[in-house]
Amino acid sequence: MNQPSPGQRDIYSVSRLNREIRTLLETGFPAIWLEGELSNLARPASGHLYFSLKDEAAQVRCAMFRNRNLLLKFRPEAGLQVRVRARVSLYEARGDYQLIVEHMEEAGDGALRRAFDELKVKLEAAGLFASEHKQPLPRFPQRIGVITSPSGAAIRDIVTTLQRRFPGLPVVVYPVPVQGETAAPAIVEALHTAARRAECDVLILARGGGSLEDLWPFNEEQVARAIHNCPIPVVSGVGHETDVTIADFAADLRAPTPTAAAELVSPSRIEWQQSFSQLGQRLTRVMQQQLRQREQQLSWLARQLPHPQRYLQSVAQRLDELEIRRNNAWRYQLRERAARLDTVRERLQQHNPRHNLRHLEERRQQLTTRLARLMRRHLEDSGQRLQYLARALETVSPLATLSRGYAIVSTEAGDKIITDVKQISRHSRIRARLHRGRFIAVIERLEDE
Q1: 328-342 tens-digit pLDDT
Q2: Which residues form the Exonuclease VII large subunit C-terminal domain (predicted)?
Q3: pLDDT (tens digit, 9 = 90+) per residue, 122-166?
Q4: DSSP SS3 for 407
């Protein structure tokens, strides 16, 4: 087989090879989605992001340029699980295969936690968590509604607690799934049904503990708004004591567990019996005391009853006096606010940044002119100094001496200068450097001065 001649070979440079590989990678792969853990995160002053995405067995280098990472809704940190959309490429300068990231979002619990925080801020700003919208719980409910799974542990704990605290208290269960995609719409429908029927005095929204993903139906906006709009007081008892959901903030009262929710909405039989007994005794004493006071008051009023016209005149005069005081107070506050506004306006004018900017610009121009003048002077001084040193160097240069017929003699290897005839012997070879060129000679005869 004939080999191509060197002139016929297509020889690649490294730059060409990397450039063509980059083209193959960028045109051969479409934009892909990739999930992994952030590591080796770097944020240079350019604003670009450089990092690696890794899983249990491998990692890949990534770059996300400034115009893309400015759109991020979170701050990337090492160890965070993320999902990215990227193009496959190659960094030609190092020959490294890499991904050019165009979009990044959190994955797993991190994304759920961010969605939780964003929805909480949104609903709080909308007033869904405001205390003035919270409804008080009835002290003695005639019927309690429970919105939960009919087969879960939460309903058993709630029913057991209610029977223990107040046997015979009616309970209505609105069965719903408490996990999965269908859970949130079902909970909303159950709240609407309870409101439409109006058969309960208070509602318990409950389920057992679980992960953030398991409890997510209780973090949906539609569930929070349904709780907020429900005319019946709602007590949330979702998860364990450490679990917090959006439903807890929207509810009229949050209980740490389903059992605690049942205790909050139900009266205690023993406490009520004791309270009834104490209230009966207090009522008897108060009624007797009130009767005595009313008899005394009636007797006193019969003697002191004033004429209605005088009373009305006094009240009218008092109203006029209060109106005058109110008008004076308003005028005083308006004058005081106007004076404060003028003072603040004058202070702002004194600290107007335009004055400082104008002064700084003049200072900058002066310094620029001074710097240019000093640089020219420094360059001129350095040039003169260089010329002086060049002339001095030429004066002491051994090359000038060689031009007058002298030579530099050294050993043949050139590693040692010969200044004494005792350093050489007959038939030894020496090297001589002239003004132009060098030669090697053999010693035929040695002579001392």
Answers
A1: 888 888 888 888 888
A2: 128-439
A3: 998 999 899 898 999 998 899 999 999 999 889 999 999 998 888
A4: coil
Domain segments of the chain: what residues?
14-107, 113-267, 268-301, 396-449
Q: Give the integer Cα–Cα distance in Å for 212 and 355.
A: 56
List the one residue out of 280, 207, 219 whose CA is nearest residue 244: 219
User: Nearest-CA neighbor of 261 among 171, 186, 194?
Assistant: 171
Architecture of domain 113-267: 3-Layer(aba) Sandwich (3.40)
Residue 440's region, left for phi above 0, alpha for psi from -120 to 50, else beta, is beta
| Cβ-contact 150, 173 below 8 angstroms | yes
Average pLDDT rounded to a whole number, residues 178-203: 94
How does pLDDT run across 18-34, given as a tens digit for each residue?
A: 888 888 888 888 888 99
CATH fit for domain 14-107, picks 3.40.50.620, 2.70.40.10, 2.40.50.140, 3.40.50.2000: 2.40.50.140
Q: Which long-range contacts (CB under 8 A, 24 or more apart) does 241-244 make?
A: 243/209, 243/210, 243/215
pTM higher than 0.90, yes or no?
no
